[in-house]
Amino acid sequence: MEKFEYKDLEHMKEVVRNEIIRLGIQDNPKVQSYNDGYIRGKAPSPSFIFSKSKMTWIEFIEEIGFKSISRKESSETGKRNLGKKYAKVGKQAWKSDSFRKRIMDEAVTAMHEGGYGMQTELSKYFKNDIGIGFGTFLNHDFTYGDFIHAYVEKYGELPHGVRSTWKYATDKELINGMENLFKKYECTSFWDYIQKNHDSLAPDSKLLMRRLGKKNVYVLANGFAAQYGKFGKAGSLNRNKGIGKRWA
Questions:
Q1: In the predicted model, what is the mean pLDDT of the chain?
Q2: pLDDT (tens digit, 9 = 90+) per residue, 7-34?
Q3: pLDDT category, 88, cuts 50, 70, 90?
Q4: Tally of CB atoms within 10 A around 129
Q5: What 3-state class would DSSP assign to 135?
Q6: CA 108 remoteness from chain centre
Q7: φ and ψ at residue 66, rounded to 5 degrees
Q8: 190-196 LR contacts (CB < 8 Å, sep 24+)
Q9: Which whole-number Å values give the CA distances from 73 to 77, 84, 89, in the listed order?
Q10: pLDDT bucket at 129, cuts 50 / 70 / 90
Q11: In sequence order, which ranges of 160-204 are alpha helices (DSSP H)?
Q12: What angle separates helix 214-228 from helix 205-212, to the nearest 10 degrees?
């Protein structure tokens, strides 16, 4: 596959500007529309744009002279119709599961179309893009991790700038993730778990120890190895005896 030849930032801006015009999406240049239609090799991918420009999609397209629909509506009306719709919602509505699911979907859609995902970016853009500030979500018992998990569930990938979902998991979710990997690969020890935990399939050892404590992690590892390890209880426990020394 032909690879886009990067010369400098200004050249890349010009290429993307022309590609957006060629695609006919200049009135509403969503990242997904660009990603679906850009010519591979002739123009850069969204991820390449993010890495080279250090900007979100919305920041980049504004830099090259376009505006997203959400930003246009925000500048013209002060907030999107969505924001008006939810502006007077009472506390009781925020307790409704259907309402929380709907508003979360609107939020992750804005994240995807805007090409952003870091917590500082949610704080910066949510008010303009969906009419509801990130702080309002937090006041109603949403967490930043909720947005990351919802994004992954909807789009099957991490949002821009986010490397792993485990950082935002609860202690219970960390333990479940650890157990699932032991079970899936029949891990015989904590060291075996570490070796088989590739592509962030489960929480990494440093995160587990920082959140749960080293002693608790070893106890869990011994238990899961005894339960799921292919060598059986005695073998897995013997193999775990040296793990504490390895990490001491």
A1: 81
A2: 898 999 999 999 999 989 888 888 878 8
A3: low
A4: 28
A5: helix
A6: 10
A7: -115, 170
A8: 190/217, 190/218, 190/221, 190/225, 190/240, 190/243, 191/239, 191/243, 191/246, 192/225, 192/229, 192/239, 193/221, 193/224
A9: 6, 12, 21
A10: confident
A11: 171-185, 190-196
A12: 120
Sign of CA dihedral 89, 91, 96, 100: positive
Any bridge partners for residue 40, and if so which? 43
Nearest to 208 by CA among 188, 245, 181, 237: 181
- Please enumerate in sequence order all residues whose Cβ is within 8 A of that of 67, keeping only pairs 6 or more positions apart, or say none: 61, 75
pTM attached to this predicted model: 0.54
Q: Which amino acid is it at 178?
A: M
3-state secondary structure of 40: strand
Q: How many residues does the chain have?
A: 248
Q: Is the pLDDT of residue 246 over 60?
A: no
Does the pLDDT of residue 234 top 80, yes or no?
Answer: no
Q: What is the pLDDT of residue 92?
A: 72
CA dist 159 and 163 (Å) reads 8
How far apart CA 108 and CA 111 sit, in angstroms, is: 5
Integer Cα distance of 130 and 137 in angstroms? 12
Of 174, 166, 168, the C-alpha closest to 224 is 174
CB 115 within 8 A of CB 160: yes
Q: Nearest-CA neighbor of 130 among 80, 171, 73?
A: 80
Neighbouring-strand partners of residue 43: 40
Angle between helices 97-114 and 144-155 (to 10 degrees): 70
